[in-house]
Specification:
Helix content: 40-55%
Number of domains: 1
Strand content: 5-15%
Largest sheet: 8 strands, parallel
Distance between the termini: 37 Å
Structural class: alpha/beta
Oligomer: single chain
Strand order of the largest sheet: 9-8-7-6-5-4-3-10
Amino acid sequence: MSSRGLRKLGRSGLQVSPLCLGTINFGNEQFGCDEETSIGIINAYLDGGHNFIDTANVYSGTKSETIVGKAVKSRRDNVVIATKAASPLGPGVFEGGTSRKHLRRAVEDSLRRLDTDYIDLYQMHRYDENTPLEETLSTLRDFVREGKVRYIGVSNWPVSQIVEAATITQMKGWEPLISLQPQYSILARDIEVEIVPVCQRFGMGIIPWSPLGGGMLTGKYKKGEEPSEGTRFAAPGPFQQIWRARALSERNHAIMEVLLEEAAKLDISPIALALSWNLSRPGVVAPIIGPKSVKQLEDNLAALDVTLPAETVERIDAASEPRYPYPHDFLRMARQMTAQMQAQARS
């Protein structure tokens, strides 16, 4: 069965494609692609009948938003554009965060770069400990009322802040959060412990970033070999090096062995397998893909025609099971014991 049909984003009427086109590579001189290539990828994605594009004001030093704006200008009304604010654009105290002062400037700057009158989904890129939640949420509500923004969401927020924000919007009758954009892949399943159930409880659709583990799940990084030049993990910079150290771990290489074996059995690419797995997870609406060429885009979209056998999912889940911290490990053990006693009573 194909996964190509549109999906509702959370508890809203917004319908989006099941694979969202991520644009963090667009205009990125270190490990991404130039403007011409980026626009070609966007056109190929939209020409294929897809509609969901995600960017952020900090991507490629603001170049990504500008590229997206140029590419979708002639068919804006048929495209769902998601962008983000909160990450710092510079060292100044008002160049990041979620204060009313910064967000007022940030939304106008994004609208100008995107060359549009409205943003479909405006997301807070990170949680701001220095700004009261009520200030951030009321500002976002104002943006919706003014027509600058259609829907709001968050990204990379801890579960306690998600619950608090969702509760505040419910109590005050403000615009609800309809989505969360978290890191989520076969290699990084931490959100399954608390965050996924909370999103389901409050009607927030999940838009996973890095569903291919920064490229690890493509199979291009081999154990014992240095990353090839031009890849994300070969790029300089502290963020890339930290991510590289986490991704190229013994655990992840062991998971990759299972993934490659299962992909070979099904005669599909590890990319298609990893994305198909992500697409089928509870609460997930649209994993974000990050192609740097039209060929990579096609390889990613192939996942929409894959249905994984139950035994494949079970083997991958067993190999990549997340660690359950206390008290979740205790509660999980208690549930398992209860299930065993009930099974014994029935036999």
